[in-house]
Design a protein that fits this description.
The complex is a heterodimer of chains A (114) and B (114). Chain A is mostly beta strands and 114 residues long. Chain A is 0% helix and 51% strand. Chain A starts with a strand and ends with a strand. Helices cover 0% and strands 50% of the residues of chain B. Classes of the chains: A mainly beta (114), B mainly beta (114).
Amino acid sequence: AQSVSQHNHHVILSEAASLELGCNYSYGGTVNLFWYVQYPGQHLQLLLKYFSGDPLVKGIKGFEAEFIKSKFSFNLRKPSVQWSDTAEYFCAPQRAGNNRKLIWGLGTSLAVNP
Amino acid sequence: EAQVTQNPRYLITVTGKKLTVTCSQNMNHEYMSWYRQDPGLGLRQIYYSMNVEVTDKGDVPEGYKVSRKEKRNFPLILESPSPNQTSLYFCASSLSSGGWGEQFFGPGTRLTVL
């Protein structure tokens, strides 16, 4: 079965610290890759996505992610976090197939201290 | 404004009392899906629909029903709710019928079954 592993469940950082959240998936075929963010009390929003091409993708609010096919990884990065980045972050690969559903990681809760 | 709407946003009910959570999208999307989000379990797909009158089970369909009579609406029906269906529910839609690509999420419905 396909699975997604987000290595960090809870991360606490101070403002201006750098962030890297790990994501590995188990499916070896064609995938789209997404990071979604859920701010406190809000719905899921797309942070960034990778479909094909340049494996380094940039998203909103200064986030970026790198797709490394050989490692089945899609790690999220931000060089300098802000208090407003406090949220839950979800990695979600999407495999080709009849039901191209998103396969969700369990999420990483990020708390940024001012 | 392009969006996915859900109603109600919050609902407290009792065991066995039938309820419907509505979901509507105004983006002319083909694909719609329901997820539930539970602590420690992440998001799990309940049902999905690739087009009008086409629905199929996701990972956790037991105790739920759906219908897709119109492209824009995808209600989730709990015929006889039980406490284990207490959860946060999200509706999502995607442009392509296979759900390939970005999914847009509604604001969520927090359901408590007593």
